[in-house]
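worker-3 :: picked DUF58 domain-containing protein
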Amino acid sequence: MPDSSQQSPVDLLDPAYLSSISNYTLMARVAVEGYLSGLHRSRFQGFGSEFVQYRAYTPGEDPRLVDWKAYARRNRLQTKIFQEETNMTCNIVLDASASMDYQGSSASCSKFDYARMVAAALAYLALRQGDQVGLTIYNSTITEAISPTQRSNRLASIFHALSRTKPEKSANHELAIEYVGHHVRGRGLFIFLSDMLDEEDHLPSLLARIRIRHYDTVALQVLDPDELDFPKAEAARFVDLESGQECVTSPKAVADSYNRSMQQSQERLTKAYIDSRVEHTVFSTKSSLGRALSAYLHRRNP
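worker-3 :: tokens ->
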């Protein structure tokens, strides 16, 4: 297992390093603590000012939230809950279709491995902040559905679901979004993780349905470096991961056409998200996980 004590905060957010940690609990903790250690204390030291109740301390939480006087009296670790903590629900929705299984030669992990690292880190951060968190994983069907809660055992369920999922089949985005949308209540945050390929005319309008239900909606698009800049090898065999169709061609011959088409597709997707008032961020699988964690904190504490 890698020695995290020898890593700088920036290194701790590198997907190449994080993907080498097989234990999801440790991976998420390393990512979140590495990220928070680089922030000014005032950004995450407190929440609301109105005290509501206590709950059992969860390992990894900020020890400054522990009521040490209560610990001295009862020999029990308890975390203070404030009003601002009690009204945020985070729903994480993860695409586990076959196209997410792609990993190019310059990437340290597949799109799905990157996306589930982001999902694990966001879930850990959400519970660390006292929020309710749930997870839905889907391809052509709903494969995992964990409802939002603050219970301390929720992370174990989420990490187990993430670790056992294998990307396969096609993606039924509408099924997943409508499934979660049917269950959302009150104020909350909806985080959608997918490669979103060829969905510029479909996905933004689907996610807008969540936004109009008073949920902040964030679309995190995960792409491989090869998809952002087509590799120019001498010859290659291309396989559609969802249909299995194959094509042998010279990448040099199609690179310019592909890059133009990809740029146009991304521009249409970005515009559609702007029109739908859905926040859209693109990640390469070589990107630091810090941007995803920053997006969560920004939405939780604007």
